[in-house]
Amino acid sequence: MKMLTNIWRLILFGFLCTVFLSMEPMRTGAIKLHQTQPTERISGSAGDVLDDDPVGRLKVFVYELPSKYNKKILQKDQRCLTHMFAAEIFMHRFLLSSAVRTLNPEEADWFYTPVYTTCDLTPNGLPLPFKSPRMMRSAIQLISSNWPYWNRSEGADHFFLVPHDFGACFHYQEEKAIERGILPLLQRATLFQTFGQRNHVCLKEGSITIPPYAPPQKMQAHLIDEKTPRSIFVYFRGLFYDVGNDPEGGYYARGARAAVWENFKDNPLFDVSTEHPTTYYEDMQRAIFCLCPLGWAPWSPRLVEAVIFGCIPVIIADDIVLPFADAIPWEEIGVFVDEKDVPNLDTILTSIPVEVILRKQRLLANPSMKQAMLFPQPAQPGDAFHQVLNGLARKLPHDRSTVYLKPGQKILNWTAGPIGDLKPW
Question: 244-251 — which CB contacts under 8 Å span 24+ positions?
Fold first, then answer.
């Protein structure tokens, strides 16, 4: 019976490949996105939101901080420009020349503090968050001492990019991130972070989830011929176990990645491996479904890569809050699988009607969808920079009764948090 089921699935896969062979895959550009595949506009308000132009709807004042908070840190390690947390650097650069920037803080709607808290890397290129809280506190102490704008709202009209694994909790291990909680001085600010999970202490109300940084030029360099068929049904490259940090297994990815390997390593429909080939981007363009499971955190660059390369993202991360969820219709372009249902992935994916798969492909081919996931250099209309500004514009006008404090009123506790965070930076 199992053999018959597998034969039937292979027949279905062959049919799907025939269908996709007749279609021309999408194309992306590092500066401008192109596509020849049939596309479908996002219906309703989501499509309108993606096309919003934030210019004229808000003004942002960028604090001029000493270079030790940003430029000097980057000078020490240029790898920070290409890792998945690099949005904090490129957002700073974008705002300095953006049409929404104002040099007059009295007319600003929002205030931005450019601090590169993720640019402290190990030899292997992994960010170390241990100095980040002290660095952020130091920057806030500086702006509150030299300008009056932080003190009048205690940061409620300020925004920060905190693209760490668990955002402003500033730790890469979830247990310790939960124990730390969000840095107390950021409790009133608007946070843009890659981490998003409902009912989690590291995602406060009012935060906006953004995509992790994926280098547009690098993806552009790996585009393949437009007529290449999607001959891989399910694709994934990455860890299934993290023996170094989770020797007993089951904690890493809450066991979801292990379940993928244990159930589908020998399944002919699944191209899954720990090996990360030089053809990784090319392979994603040959795949129909790309697995995007949680790891230590629920998000990863795979989500961006899948959208850019037109591979339907299979999102395996319970309660995840996805990037720009008010603008990108993730339910329509992706497939959501509960972590407990991973052993049934083959049945779930082969049961999706062909017409549903084709519609997801058409939506993914929409240039607006792809542009919203990228931080290109230079910036382009509708890109992730502009979606960040759109998110800020939609929060205006400020509710003066909740944003601005009464004379003498204090809400934040400057001495709260771990003792180590209180040390000078």
Answer: 245/173, 245/296
Listed in sequence order, the residues at least 6 apart from 52 whose beta carbon sits closer than 8 Å to its beta carbon are 386, 390, 393
SS3 195: coil
Whole-angstrom Cα distance, residue 116 to residue 162?
A: 9
b/e code 82-118 from CB counts within 10 Å (16+ = b): ebbbbbbbbbbbbbeebebebeeeeebbbbbbbbbbb
DSSP state of 79: G
pLDDT at 16: 55
- Residue 287, token pair as written in the block: 């795949």
**pLDDT tens-place string over residues 321-344:** 999 998 899 999 999 999 999 999
Q: Which of 376, 398, 362, 371 is nearest to 52 (CA)?
A: 371
- CA-to-CA dists, residue 128 to 116, 165, 173, 180, angstroms: 12, 10, 11, 15
Q: What mean pLDDT do residues 340-368 have?
A: 96
Helices and strands (H, E) in the chain, number of each type: 17, 10
pLDDT in tens, 46-67: 445 787 899 999 999 999 999 9
Report the 10 Å Cβ neighbour count for 378. Answer: 10
Express each pLDDT in 167-213 by its tens digit. 999 998 899 999 999 999 999 999 999 999 999 999 999 999 999 99
pLDDT of residue 393: 96
User: CB of 159 within 8 A of CB of 112?
Assistant: yes
Give the whole-angstrom CA distance, residue 157 versus residue 62: 12
Structure tokens at 416: 């709260």
Residue 2's region, left for phi above 0, alpha for psi from -120 to 50, else beta, is alpha
Nearest to 305 by CA among 324, 319, 325, 291: 291
Q: Rounded CA gap, 416 and 134, in Å? A: 13
Output b/e per residue, 242-262; b: 16+ Cβ within 10 A: beeebeeeeebbbbbbbbbbe
Strand stretches in 44-89, DSSP E: 60-62
Q: What's the start-to-end Cα distance of the chain, in Å?
A: 65
Phi-psi region of 44 (alpha: psi -120 to 50; beta: other; left: phi over 0): left
Tell me whether the omega of the peptide bond preceding residue 378 falls within 30 degrees of 0, making it cis.
yes
